[in-house]
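Course assignment 3, question 2. Fill in each field.
Student: A.L.
Task: Predict the tertiary structure for the chain below.
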Amino acid sequence: MTTDVTDTGLGTIRTGILGGGFMARVHRTAARDAGGALRAVATRSAQGARDAAHLLGAARAEHDAEALLDADDIDVVHICTPNATHADLALRALRAGKHVVCEKPLATTAADAAALAAEAAETGLVAAVPFVYRYHPMVREARARIARGEAGELLTLDCSYLQDWMLRPTDDDWRVRSSSGGASRAFADIGSHLCDLLEFVTGDRIRTLSARTRRVFAERAGQAVDTEDIVAVLVETSAGALGTLLISQMAAGRKNALTLELHGTRQSLRFEQERPEELWVGMREESRLLLRDPATADPESARLQRVPAGHAMGYQDAFNGFVADVYAAIAGDVPDGLPTFADGHRAAVLTEAVLDSAAHEGRWTEVPA
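Answer field:
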């Protein structure tokens, strides 16, 4: 089980949230589950903050971000605002002495993300990015099996992250414009999750890549679009595995279909985020479907399993596990696999490599270590 911060001797961790949308609700639920107390919320407007505070059950609404960051009764700030605001708010939070959980992308440029990672390291504060798919127990099971050598040498990678929420030309969101979402949409939004999971599970890094992008509609809801809808990437890892990554926010019927399939010389492993209770293990002689069970799981998988086998776990459970680890780290116990600002910087580096390759018609591009 994950650590409960109320058992650490630190006392209740006091939380502030910037933003009031869907992700703010997810963060609120996870913070509450970890034993935190939601002290304050701030959004772009005073009325919005009051509405969000009421919805999220916060003790109060702050009139702006500065007031929340300056508050003496907040230990950790969760940043759930549009992408273009992340870097500035995260830097201000660190300099105010607050621990930080910042939604991805950590920053819209690799340079800004590097500066944030350096600032976090210098302050010694806990600074985390919600690459929460690491917290599905069967992801940890796959990682443990690869680390033990059960899959053998990894040869090929067949991975994708597909959604359909931008399928129609009338579908619109602040993320489609680079001024608010950054130069990349589909890859920075969900491709970053896919790459983080790939590198986390395999223990290997993408060394080179070749990418193509596609923007299907020049306009959405009457406004110009300057970010991509679809990305296809060929990758080679440092260990020599070759792989394909397909990222799309226009795959009809696919709601949140993150799939990781890894082929080794002894076994293949397949994890599907929409079927998080399962891990498929393929072998020459037979194939098996492993179901989540804390009684038989690797210890790193078992510690994230909050309920017995047969009681389904899902996305919010994974997010709860992530925030519980963040709050445990604040209390002085840093669990294995916590995604930090260094991982947020890595995602920004990969994003820029993808955009650079696509801008040069898929040219093979080295990914900086």
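Instructor remarks: The CA atoms of residues 267 and 283 lie 5 Å apart. Confidence is low (pLDDT under 50) at residues 1-9.
Grade: pending
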